[in-house]
Predict the structure.
Amino acid sequence: MVEETASAALTLKDIAREAGVSLATVDRVLHNRPGVRPDTVRRVQETIARNAFQPHVAAAELARGRARRFAFVMPTGANPFMLQIQAYLGEMSAWLSARRLAVEMVITDVFDPSVLAASLEELAGSEYDGVAVVALDHPSVRAAINDIVDRGIKVVTLVSDVPSSRRHHYVGIDNIAAGRTAGALVGRLVGQRSGKIAIIAGSQGLRDHAERIFGFNQVMASEFSHLDILPLLEGRDEDDRSQQLISRLLGKHPDIIGLYNVGAGTQGVATALTEAGRDKQIVFIAHDLTAMTRRLLLQGTLDVAISQNPGHEARAAVRVLLSLARNEPILSEQEKIRIDILMRDNLP
Amino acid sequence: MVEETASAALTLKDIAREAGVSLATVDRVLHNRPGVRPDTVRRVQETIARNAFQPHVAAAELARGRARRFAFVMPTGANPFMLQIQAYLGEMSAWLSARRLAVEMVITDVFDPSVLAASLEELAGSEYDGVAVVALDHPSVRAAINDIVDRGIKVVTLVSDVPSSRRHHYVGIDNIAAGRTAGALVGRLVGQRSGKIAIIAGSQGLRDHAERIFGFNQVMASEFSHLDILPLLEGRDEDDRSQQLISRLLGKHPDIIGLYNVGAGTQGVATALTEAGRDKQIVFIAHDLTAMTRRLLLQGTLDVAISQNPGHEARAAVRVLLSLARNEPILSEQEKIRIDILMRDNLP
DNA sequence: CTCAAAATGAGTTGCGCACCTCAAAACGCC
DNA sequence: GGCGTTTTGAGGTGCGCAACTCATTTTGAG
């Protein structure tokens, strides 16, 4: 029992013949070039639709000649998650060059709106076909993104979104949902016990951290109101500072049963927990899968790591930019980034 | 600060010149065609490697002429998970036809080794470039797969593997790890409580079910030995039968605190739980994300759904077959199927 | 050295499309 | 009806490679 799923192999010539026009006109319609009567445009488009015609991507790509260039605007510094994204882009290099795609890194201080905006404005005047940017949500950044879009360059925001801009796509997770997931897990894993829940973030000023905290508190308030949430600590994503803050907190509150680390500095938090000898009694949830969090999961110090797959984000950003540049539909289901719940037994 | 990641745009002609041979010889080397001295082969390959040369896939695809044909051997019946995979393949139809790829469904009884083997043998003599098969692990199936491979057709096993065959790739999850994940979650979510844990499967004869049960028991024995595991029930993946079995079990054991459904029939199990009024007290874990399990998660009847992403499996199978057919390297990190832990707050 | 077999060079064709030019036809306006 | 403008047709070129043919050179065995 065999079923057909794919169709014939029409070419532009067939479409031209069937629509009663020349190849040149079909080409004009296909690329929105001027000089075609609206009536004729419609006739050609109908013929294309009627036959479910798809231009042969390989032929189109070959005929284009020049390679496509994409820029990835990434933060300076040693943020492991960002470095992982860059590493996965590196792993794609054979894949990219076989398709004559060039991906270039633009490293800049994405946390300073004016610096980021300036970097983006520079790209607006360049020869890039697409830009992926880890964007801070700020009016001047938004304006810079819109400028790039107006130049006909495709833009996707990566990891961190600027929803008010006219960017074509966002590749990343819903951080409110991530925070809610953390809250639900803490609440469920502490079980019947009652006690206090600690929460530490890098800074409330970071949009993704703020969103996670919001989601976390939402769930705690609505579903686990019997638990006592301690005031938020800010560890600035640094191991040392996080360790000190948590050590002091553990000393002050012997009845902490759950701990959520919103940002980085997980190693510091874990050290504080083990030094206090309370890593097994306290439910500890953090973000991102690194060599370090993997180790902590296997040891049992960390109970759950909530993560977004950096490899998936890197590849999705490239694919989305490519599809946009080709005016191809995007497989949205494929490009959606999931909130991964990682425990010891489902580590990839 | 800009860093280059991709390289030049050499062509075969450049390679030929640099290696001091003709285009024809490079072509022979590239496609393992006979008639080239080993010494020359080496020289050409070294030139290719030295320049990190990648043939332009678009040009290669275009020059090939004929389209590639892939067959998907899928089970008969209304298994929702399998239907989802087929649905996602359908969603790819525009993507496929733009690449002149034809994907055809071969629906057969994959649970009968002789029927499946016969279907596969038929494919061995056909014009397919690749075959994806939901394979039962049985000697005659293994032999059939090896036959197909010997014909030069690429084979990937889908969802269910035949590790002893010479299939080129497996697209699916590690079911032992999935079972262990279920065990860890049941154990963690019941918390301090003590009581009995129920487990129901379709049949122990199904390899994936058996593996999940194995993993589940492994974790329960080593980490949650204080919990009492009830004997396995077999619901044949049917809602009615599962409901009856669970209803009876709930009547007999008032102290059940956890329940793991290994296979299908989740609706039946859920009905039994709610009718007994114990859906909130019992930790309930099942597999796969469907409209039904999504509803149960939102209601709170189901606590966790463990799933493998059917869309990802469909696309990965196609991509892997395509890469194999093109003799391209596979992005293994991309094609790996993860064990997803889905709760109410991280539903996609 | 001779001869057949193996290895190689040189060349052609065509895949389907993008992108271009130039001439011809159709059109709208006065 | 004449005019300029818009629309269309016809055609060409080349992208990089696969796949082929056929002539020529090199090689090794006897």
Summary: The longest helix of chain A spans residues 207-223. Chain A touches chain B through 76 residues (CB under 8 Å).
